[in-house]
Amino acid sequence: MRYAAIDSWVVAKRDLIHWVREPVRVFANLAYPVISVLIFGLVFGSAMNVFGGGDYIEFLLPGMFGQTIAFGVGTTLMMVSMDADRGVTDRFRASPMSQTGVVAGRSIADLVNSSLELLVLALCGLVIGWSFHDGLLNALVAFALFLWLRFALVWVGIYLGLLVKPEAAQASWMFLFPLTMFANTFVSPELMPGWLRVVAEWNPLSSTVAAARELFGNPGVGGDSWAAQHSLLLAVLWPAVFVAVFWPLSVLKYRNLSR
Amino acid sequence: MLAEGLRKSFDKKAALDGFDLAVPAGTVCGLLGPNGAGKTTAVRILATLLRLDGGRAEVAGFDVAREAPQVRRQVALNGQQSTVDDVLTGKENLVMWGRLYHLSKRQASARADELLEQFGLTDAADKRAKQYSGGMRRRLDLASSFIQRPSVLFLDEPTTGLDPRNRGEVWREVKRVVAEGTTVLLTTQYLDEADQLADQIVVLDTGRVAAQGTPDQLKSKLGGDRIEVVVRTAEELPVVRDVLGPDAEVDADGFRVSAAVIDRVAALTRVTSALAAKGVEAEDIALRRPTLDEVFLAITGHKAVDTSGVRA
């Protein structure tokens, strides 16, 4: 058990050192959401409507947090498939280290990375006019919900990372991008055509984003669907479902490496 | 290290089909074979990375199937790819593996310094591995395998893709650790590598042992290296044949005579001076080592079939 903790930390530290030494990558990671906030908030913002009224930047920021978190699955996927491809995973498996350490280390590194992204985005948002209105505690709960989703996505990323080669992993954003847009992230589902609206309302990302809007006191909350009205519950449940499905799948896949 | 009747299939295709192996402690065994012969599969099973379908294997006295954790404390694996982390320095790489082998921080750091010294990397200890040459990276990778002083080391094609000088460096390190008592199982596609390092060579063909013995035994089976003399006129062919000895083969169309030799350099000297004495001016004289394909053909009677597509 003690070794599991040490192993996790050693594996996580490897990634953290990468970020410190290769700030270009971190910068590129952060640049995308920051630039998006500026483009959507300041360029498109004036032409955007928030269903039910309200300031678009106030509406946008929780959506950006959500998209950033969802893109994190691409990072996890990439790192896991690179380790597997380079034989690092095999070295881990042939060593006496605890197998929990490999995945726990991955989770720690990814959560630290995403927390940093959220922090930078939030600061950027505060500068251009976003804010939270229902107290610091509620705001922190909202961020905790984002990280809960991120934790669940680590497992999705581990499973997919063991499944595909790095070249395929690189293409994952092509799927991630629309998945993060067919949601309530940038536009209220109420403004979308019927079928897409249903997809967007039930998109797990929408639940977390809607719950966060509520906790931040930002506009765009509510809607007629059951999913929209129970966003807080779903923001807790959806990630739990991901974990329940992808945790065992990942463990199975990891074991099957020795097939 | 012992393997008896190992069997392993991927998608119903047999990668290992009754593979046997016995390597005495402290010796080097070279697994030789073309891509797809089952070398990597054998190594992965013995290193506890793959489950076997049939047979049994023991490494360092432990059963690989039932006592995998004990085996992992005794073995180190050095795969075809380098697992060196580019962004970390040489020392940080070693400390990381030291920690994963459950040394304390101080022990891991001390062991890293020792290994850097042994593998001649002390000067580059604090440089990022990105700046290392191919040979240095390979040495660092090897060093990281030695953290727990393994009693068995698996080397899967350790010099594939290295230039001759770097290959020499790696060979020197392997010889050094063997001298310290480590048992090594080496897979290679290069005949000369097995020749340089191995006490015992096992030739694999489609999942089975096709031949085994010391390098000298295998070579004498094949006739070893060959000397080839090319002349300008057909009249000179019999003269050359006399010089090369009774087993010489004459290729009249190519004005070429060839024969097996044991000592390469001595044979070359002898043939050159004998030809000069008889007044034969050769167009070309060359020493040639049998290629793996030729060895393989001689031993198995068929060409190497590349089935590497079965499993990378």
What's this, in brief?
Helix content of chain A is 79%, strand content 0%. Chain B is 37% helix and 25% strand.
Question: How does this model look, in words?
Answer:
The complex is a heterodimer of chains A (259) and B (312). Chain A has 259 residues and is an all-alpha fold. Chain A has one domain (2-256). Chain A has helices at 2-21, 23-44, 56-85, 88-94, 99-128, 135-163, 166-170, 173-181, 194-202, 204-216, 226-229, 231-256. In chain A, helix 5 packs across helix 6 (135-163). With 312 residues, chain B is an alpha/beta fold. Chain B folds into two domains: 2-84 and 132-220, P-loop containing nucleotide triphosphate hydrolases (Rossmann fold, 3-Layer(aba) Sandwich), CATH 3.40.50.300; 225-288, Alpha-Beta Plaits, CATH 3.30.70. Chain B is built from eleven helices and 14 strands. In chain B, helix 3 (90-100) crosses helix 4 (105-118) and helix 5 packs parallel to helix 6. Residues 306-312 of chain B have low confidence and may be disordered. Chain A: InterPro entries: ABC2_TM (IPR013525), ABC2_TM_bact-type (IPR047817), ABC_2_transport (IPR000412), Nod_factor_ABC_transporter (IPR051784). Chain A: The chain crosses the membrane at residues 26-47, 59-80, 116-133, 139-164, 171-187, 232-252. Chain A: One of its GO terms (biological process) is response to antibiotic. Chain A: Belongs to the ABC-2 integral membrane protein family.
